[in-house]
Structures are given as C-alpha cells and as structure tokens.
Write a structure and sequence with these properties.
Blueprint: E1 28-34, H1 37-61, H2 64-120, H3 126-208, H4 212-224, E2 230-234, E3 237-238, H5 247-255, E4 260-263, E5 270-273
Parallel strand pairs: 2-5
Antiparallel strand pairs: 1-4, 2-3, 4-5
Helix pairs in contact: 1-3, 2-3
Length: about 280
C-alpha cells in the first residue's frame, strides 16, 4: 500500500479515476427544485429588496442621534444630581439659619429681661447687681457670636442658591438639547420606517410572484449566508462570493437545464443565470 493521501484520514487513499470517466461536477444543485428562468431572475429583485431592508435596519440602529442622546442624557443626569445637591444644601442652610436666628432671638430676649432688672435694681444686693451685669455682658458676647453664625450661614445659603440657579439654567439648556436630538431622531426614524413599510410591501408583491418552494430555499440560504440568498452569475463570476467559476463549474452550469436551480460551490448561494453570465 502506498502512502496515505495528505488530505485524507490516515489509511485512506483517494479513489483512482479510470481514464475517460468524468467525475460529477462540484457545482451544488437543487435537484428537487425547478423554476422558470424568469422566476429565478425575480430572486435578484427580491434580494435587492432584502439588502435594502438590511441597510435600513442598520441605518436606523446607527443614527448619530442615538449616541448624541446617550451623551446628553449623561450630562443631564450629572447636572440634575449637582442641582439636587445645591438645592439640598440651600434647604439645610435655611433650617440652620432659622435655628441660629432663633438662638439669637432667645439670647436677645433674655438680655433684655436682665437689663430691665438691672435698670430697676429693686430688691437686689450689690453682689446680685454685679452678677447680673456680668451675665448681661456674657449674653452680649453670646449674641454677637450667634449673629456671626447667622451671617456665615446666610453666606453659605446665598452661595448654594446661586449654584442652584446656575444649575437650573444648565439643566434647562441640556434638556433643550436632548429634546432637539430626540425630535431629530424621531423624524429620521419615521422617515426610515416609512421606507421600510414601502419596501416591505414591494417585497411581498415580488415574493408572491415566486414559487413557494423557491422562496423557501432562498430564505433558508439567505439565513445561512449573511443575508444573501441569491447571487447573479456575471461574466463567469458569482456576485455572492465574488469568485470566478473554474472551467469545470462553468461546464456544469452550461449543462444544467434552464429551469434547474443551481448553486455556487464556494458560497452555496443560489446562482442566477442571465444573459451576462458569460456562458
């Protein structure tokens, strides 16, 4: 036994071909399906419509407005978070200011009562008067400190309010951009959808004029071949895989009956013959 063929499993040898015997052609056929040449050519029209539908779906998915809206919505969310933070800070400062002002008012009222007692001096010993004067001085210092707190809180509240106002404007501006992008996206989508509806109706008409078994084969091949189920044989080249048929393949196609559905050996797509096939 001679060496095994390098492209076959170990221990196997290629079949010897007797002289004068022609092996079957490699071109893939669909022996159980026959269709008039005109029906096969209509597959090219159907294929063109399917390609257009695929292009429209890609165009719809790839509209630049999609990415623009995502980016703008990210900015909008960030500005809204900053706005909420500024509004929260302003609200907190408002409560803190109200509390500090209440503390100032309480100290002021107490100091006023002590001053009235000091001014009257009725029934008070010199020691009590001295103690009252010291308390009034302490209250005055306490009031001053609290008033400083009020001023500091008011400044923080004012700054927070200014930031909130600025961020409110930014949110409105970005929201306007989002609304504009959404409107443009919706308009573009509506235009694409209208064309899809038109092409889909046209496809239904063309598909309805092609035999059911041929359509079934076309759809099956198209699903397995990247959306292209039928390709024209043009100048001895399959327009599906863009490969030129060799002489053996061409001879097999020449021998096939006109109503026989043949397929490309390389890409398995339905091979549609026309007057420009170069046969």
């Amino acid at each position: 036994m001679g060496p095994a063929h390098p492209c076959l499993p170990y221990g196997h040898r290629p079949l010897d071909r007797p002289r004068g015997v022609v092996l079957p052609s490699p071109v893939i056929r669909s022996p159980q399906i026959n269709a008039a040449p005109a029906d096969q050519i209509r597959l090219l029209d159907l294929q063109a419509l399917d390609v257009r539908l695929t292009q429209l779906a890609h165009k719809r998915k790839s509209l630049p407005e999609h990415a623009e809206i995502v980016s703008l919505e990210g900015d909008l969310a960030q500005h809204r978070d900053l706005l909420v933070a500024a509004q929260t800070e302003e609200s907190d400062c408002a409560r803190e200011q109200a509390k500090a002002e209440q503390d100032v008012d309480q100290v002021r009222q107490r100091a006023a009562r002590d001053q009235q007692r000091l001014d009257s001096g009725a029934g008070m010993s010199p020691k009590d008067l001295e103690k009252l004067q010291h308390e009034i001085a302490s209250l005055a210092k306490r009031q001053g400190d609290l008033e400083d707190v009020v001023l500091e809180v008011m400044e923080r509240r004012e700054a927070a309010a200014e930031r909130a106002t600025e961020l409110t404007g930014r949110v409105a501006s970005v929201q306007a951009k989002v609304d504009d992008a959404v409107a443009r996206r919706d308009a573009a989508t509506a235009t694409i959808d209208a064309e899809v509806a038109t092409v889909t109706k046209e496809r239904e008409v063309v598909a309805g004029s092609v035999p059911a078994d041929l359509i079934k084969l076309y759809d099956k091949v198209r699903a397995r071949s990247g959306g292209v189920g039928a390709a024209r044989l043009y100048q001895r080249r399959c327009e599906g895989c863009q490969l030129e048929l060799d002489i053996t393949e061409l001879n097999d196609v020449r021998k096939a009956a006109k109503d026989e559905v043949v397929r490309c050996e390389n890409c398995s797509r339905i091979l549609v013959r026309t007057s420009d096939s170069g046969l």
